[in-house]
Predict the 3D structure of the following.
Amino acid sequence: MRLIFLGSPEPVIAPLKALLAQARALGHEVVGVVSQPARPSGRGQGPVDPPVAAYAKSLGIATLQPEKASSPEFLAAFAGLMPDVAITAAYGQILNEEFLAIPCRATINIHPSLLPKYRGATPVPAALLSGEEVTGVTILFTVKKLDAGAIIVQESMPIERDETSGVLTSRLFAASTPLVVAALRHLEDPAFAGTPQKEAAATHCRKIEKQHGAVDWQRSSAEIYNAFRAYEPWPGTFTHLEGRRLSLVEMKHDESAMSGLAPGQAHYEKRLRCLLVGTSDGTVQLFKLKAAGGKVVTAEAFWNGLKNRSHVVFQGGEL
């Protein structure tokens, strides 16, 4: 089968690389890559390709980067590659029915959750926010309704206690490779249609905005720590002290820690070399912080730099 890979961010290079290494042995061929357009970046604001496009171009693979995946020009170029299967992984654009009609066999998607749970664009942060201990990868048929197609193959995986969204996303896409290979074997059977999802069990992810990173110290320690994990690397978590915005760079959660601190109240714990910050049911530990426009500093350096350490209270907002 003629395969086209659609993806944009760094973590999905892993399944593309594996496909390129194994396609010939499987009797298939990767004939093209589709990725987002280059965007201004850096101090000079020059155009920079997304990681998948840059990787594909470095190997001389035909690469399409439409501003809109629904444009007639792109659809004509895509059809010209004569794909049998399109494989999407965090591509970043909605694919219309005209697109889905082009691949002869199917369009399939690599989704980092155990569908039908966490449909949408942010399944990894959603799982961490909910305190899930298990997640997984689903390979499914792409249909018009978001993430609602029949499941081709699925595998569950544990979530490590301190994994952040960035780390977990990379691990899940790296682990997707054997599942994609298994899915392609299923698709060699023209009668294979997968297993329909249970609509009654479906849940959906919310869109993540920058303001979601504001810490609400009235929440529990577990909720605050799960938000820290979910929003790393973007949008990050932050709080305020005397009008200064502070990004929280390194945090830990000790379920047994009880300090008598009010929510948002902080003091430096010399033995642990961290700031203990009160929550609704205990504390979280801050090891590194960053003031707006400043450098990342340790909790000790931050504490020593405060003029008044007698009553330090962080102000936050909704998670």
Summary: The chain has a mean pLDDT of 95.
